[in-house]
Amino acid sequence: MCAKLGLLTLGLVFSVCAGCAINPITGDEDLMLYPEEQDIAIGRKYAPKVEKSLDGRIDNNDVQKYIDRVGQRIARASHRPDLEYHFIAVKNESVNALAVPGGHIFILKGMLEKLTTEAQLAALLGHEVAHVVARDSMAALSRKQALDVLLIGAMFGGAPAEAVRGASATRLFLDLRYSREDEYEADLAGLDYMVAAGYDPRGAIELIKTLEDENAVRPLEFFSTHPSPKNRRAYMMARIQARYHGLATLKVGEEAYREQVLQRLTRKKSK
Fold this sequence. Notes:
Strand content: 5-15%
Number of strands: 5
Distance between the termini: 70 Å
Helix content: 55-70%
Radius of gyration: 20 Å
Largest sheet: 3 strands, mixed
Structural class: mainly alpha
Order of helices and strands: HEEHHEEEHHHHHHHH
């Protein structure tokens, strides 16, 4: 019996190890137990539930169009411009943003209110687009599933989507944590995307500094698994100096962001 269980577990380990995909950002193989079409199916099914859990979308079409316009500009500069992206501003007051598989990216109202320029928004959306491109949510689910296999010696029976089914599925995406390496790669790829889209890369440094100041007042979910703000600023500044030093002035968009987002959110509050 023990021998059979050992062989079964060994077979499961080999099955897990065989499931890999190339990360378009790094060119490396990542553990991946889900075919890419599952990203789209899972995103379509659970993005509306995640949106509802985040108090629904902000009721201002101009804000939504503006954020989507900036996001689509970033997406076109990414490693996967062919994907269908959806950028949605939601009412939740937390200072956070997140990506659901299949290109559904949510930016929370609390985060929007902390930004001051379009370049900072581009940096934030670039970071989330990088998570979509690298399939980091699906990789995190794959690591979780692989761990389950190694711990209990049994893999999910049926389609991969079963790993996220049930009433707790929405909570799973809200609570999903990327690895520090995932965050590091998303920072740098997002920086590259925003510059390729025409935005001043200093917006990324300003974003980290703004959120670092806010984090000193109260812990932010956005920093829960990220590298320390000091380290993030250091390696992003190194990338800027190495690749983008001396570039002609790129877009900052302070006035545009104030008019298109901040003033509209303020008017909404005052009503």
